Amino acid sequence: MKIAVGLSGGVDSSVAALLLKNAGHDVFAIFMQNWNDSTGTLHGDCEWEEERSVAEMVARKIGIPFHFVDLSAEYRKRVVDYMFDGYERGLTPNPDVLCNREIKFDSFLRHALGLGAEYVATGHYCCKDEVRTADGHIEYRLLAGLDKNKDQSYFLCQLTQEQLRYALFPIGGITKPEVRRIAKEAGLPSADKKDSQGICFVGKVDLPVFLQQKLKPKEGRVIEIFRDFYEGMKVPETIEEMAKPVIYTETDGKLAGRHDGAQFYTIGQRHGLNIGGHKNPLFVVATDVENNLIYVGEGQDHPGLYRKGLRIEPRDIHWVRPSLALPVGEQRDCLVRIRYRQPLQQARLYAREDGLYIIFDNPQRGVTPGQFAAWYDNEGELQGSGVIYK
User: How does DSSP assign 160-210, residue by residue?
Assistant: First the structure.
């Protein structure tokens, strides 16, 4: 098979390419330049020129052709602008999920197919297989990777059947230590390279500085919500009530400080508040971008940090396999995560006319609007995902 590998310069994609070449496939590498603006980035953490140099050395070592493609215009429009828009509306988007849906398995995929590729391989720690439905159609399953500490299926939770059709994940069935071992034994230049961190293809960033490219600072008030605010509060009984966040007003708490703009903060955030005089750290429990207010609570177990459920609007519900879609009026037990590397949580899905409700067995800390909730079955298949509503 002729396979294009998205070679990033990291050890994971390098070993993916090596394994495919050793298996006898016709492999070629493509390096994507998706970002060329250093504004707000922490110098030295994601220099694409260095990454490209390492990727070229890896391709030479393996003995495969090397190609370069500049997708920075698409990335800015389809990922970064999405980020800016989300933060401006008080949401916390996940650019890594968007990068996979909009760039790696869309723009990049189309470029690879144009070069004659039959499949596109990446260094993601996840797996794929196929099943045949009752009516004879083939569907592709997206599965968690073998290495539970590195499973990256969450980042691919928005992929479609058409995208999965062309996708290969050569290292999904091995662990990270094994990947390192293979790379070292093969003498790959990326063998000891540290894993990248931060925003996909942008790197580690000073987020407020990065966002200030488009979002202007605006001083506002920080309101502290005390624990006695929740005493006597009605316990949610219905699905709809359990999925609703608490809505605060200024009179619910006490002025604790000032901030630079509510759009620069997210639920669960601890750093950047710069408010002293407390025994325990303060955490953001809610933001109000419209009124430029931030609500905080003291202690990591503050009641305002926890929610029993969430809702996904109908337009944001995505089923990786459409045949698994839950009909309106039905429910299903599943395992859910609301952020990367969060342990899977027991929950139940409820399909309603106004969206998909997820109610957890145990209240969840830091349910954040704009992030993706992804649900799995007990066998590790990622069945679907959606953007968390308010």
Answer: -HHHHHTEE-TTTTS-HHHHHHHHHHTT-TTTTPPPP-SBTTTBSB-HHHH
Distance of alpha carbon 259 from its chain centroid, rounded? 27
Report the CATH number at residue 339: 2.40.30.10
**Quick check: helix, strand or coil at residue 220?**
strand
| Helix (H) or strand (E) segment spanning residue 373 | strand 372-376
Residues 175 and 234 in one domain: no
Find the CATH number of the domain harbouring 17. Answer: 3.40.50.620
Q: Given the structure tokens 């990591």, which residue do they identify?
A: 300
Please tell me the distance from the alpha carbon of residue 151 to that of residue 379, in angstroms, as a whole number: 14
Residues 356 and 318 in one domain: yes
* Same domain for 78 and 200: yes
pLDDT at 210: 77
Give the tens place of pLDDT for each residue, 199-247.
Answer: 555 556 667 777 878 889 999 999 999 999 999 899 899 999 999 999 9
Residue 190 near residue 22 (C-beta atoms within 8 A): no
Distance in angstroms (rounded) separating the CA atoms of residues 286 and 295: 5
Give percent helix, percent strand, percent coil of the chain, each to the nearest 5: 30, 30, 40
Q: Mind telling me the catalytic residues?
A: 99, 200
Q: What percent of the chain has pLDDT over 70?
A: 94
User: Is 265:287 a contact under the CB 8 Å cutoff?
Assistant: yes
Which pTM was predicted?
A: 0.92
The residue range of the domain holding 259 is: 215-300
Q: Tell the residue number behind the tokens 């750290």, with chain if given.
A: 281
In angstroms, the CA 256 to CA 273 distance is: 10
- What's the total number of domains in the chain? 3
Q: Are residues 232 and 198 in the same domain?
A: no
- pLDDT-based confidence at 120, cuts 50/70/90? very high
**Single-letter amino acid, residue 229:** F
What CATH number is associated with residue 282?
A: 2.30.30.280
